[in-house]
Amino acid sequence: MTLIPLMTARAGLCAVVLLGSASSALAQQCPGAAGFGKWLQSFKQQAVAQGISPRTVSVALDGVTYDPNTIAKDRAQGVFAQDFLTFSGRMVSNNRMQVGAALLKKYGSTFAKIEQQFGVPGPVLVAYWGLETDFGKVMGNMQSIRSLATLSYDCRRPAEFQAQLMDALRVIDRGDLSPAEMRGPAHGEVGQFQFQPSTYYNYAVDFDGDGRRDLVKSAPDSLASAANYIRSKGWQPGQPWLEEVIVPPNLPWEQADVTIQRPRLFWSRYGVTYRNGKPVPADNVPAALVLPMGRDGPAFLAYPNFINVYLDWNNSLVYSTTAGYYATRLAGAPPLKRGNPEPFTAAETKQLQQLLARQGFDVGKIDGVIGAGTREAIRSMQIKYGLPADSYPSHELLRQLQRGR
Ligand code: CA
Question: How far does residue 211's CA lie from ligand 1's centre (Å)?
Fold first, then answer.
């Protein structure tokens, strides 16, 4: 499913991390527009050989040209990173709360039917709907077929995009959308939940009963398709995804990471409570403790629904925690406690990543984005230095690393 590093599944318009991942050396070896026409002819033959009707192939691909703009966006080196409080503050706005609540009401009977059939509650769907496309209002405006054809011909990841293009043709061939209706951002994502064409082909459902799976114009089709996709990733009906908690001043902080699941009784023994002071149940339900801004910021218990489904939708912890938190708010939870986390800029994070890389850790790209590799490296060095090992950067850690011990 992964087309874009650090973003999986549908790769939203408003994802936290926008990365162009081709090295410039590789980009220089890529063919320009010159051979595109010839390549397109042979792809058309392949599509017909794979059972797509000649008419669909012709309607979708005749006259399609190489799009330098798609390539420029694909190669863009810009990285845009925001911490959880900044990003969630911006994305879970009062306006999005109001519009989300109104839509939950407007489509109440649709959500009831969807939950009955797929087990996924309305707030989870509405939160993604808002984050991905502002509830279907901002879906991107590039011609998806042209983008996909360009990336299929391009040298960077042709096999992946050729598979996506073929599935886009299948979506057209079965009458879900016309080529002209397929518009989106630069990597061919389509519709109100920004599905990649293969996701569309495999998971879209016709929920309004008009015989077409229309994820561009039909809200019921879009919502049910998102639910169908989420269920396929192992969503457990009736189970929580994220719950805000209060953590005591002393915890084995190195246990607080989305990759470490413990029975709730483990957290209960350490005095983790809900917002209202009620202790977390001392049972065996597995949960990870997620501290998106470190131990002085907000705290959440993350359940298998979060770990298996949210992080599959988008493996950015900042994006997924925001989506999960927004869903809890729509389901009635109060605004989170911001706490008092130490401010740490993206530039400082880059500096920290450089120092960690020098220590031999694989932190991925030095990009100021705190991914899984950086978190793990931070935790290791915090443990080494005897600092609270909450996997979150601090100036104290930066100082110690600069001293180079
Ligand atoms: Ca329909």
Answer: 6
